[in-house]
Design a protein that fits this description.
Elements (H helix, E strand, L loop, with lengths): L2 H31 L6 E6 L2 E7 L4 E6 L5 E7 L2 E7 L5 H4 L9 E4 L4 E6 L2
Antiparallel strand pairs: 1-2, 1-7, 3-4, 4-5, 6-7
Length: 119
Amino acid sequence: MSDFGQKTGQREFILIGVILLAAALLFLWNHFYFSRPAAVVEISIDGTVTKILDLSKNQELDIEGADGGRNHLVIENGEAWVSEASCPDKICIHQGKISHDGEMIVCLPNRMTARISGR
């Protein structure tokens, strides 16, 4: 193998190492920046916050959405999810449980959002 081929292989190895290191640093930054403890769920109807609920208190409530729509929100063990909805597609139910700052459940037909906030 020529001297050029060995240098090219070394450069590729160094480049791969730098890329892996950058990816690891970005992952760690993202993990620590966005892993603040979640404290509340902000419920909005048509873009207006109507309720702020404590994530540390287990509770269930029905949320009246726009045009008479309804979503049933459950808060349990620091997680929130929609268990029932009057909307036809039920996407808000399939979004699952949320518990981290910035996560959100959206129901477009009922114009309801439930957003986790780490206040």
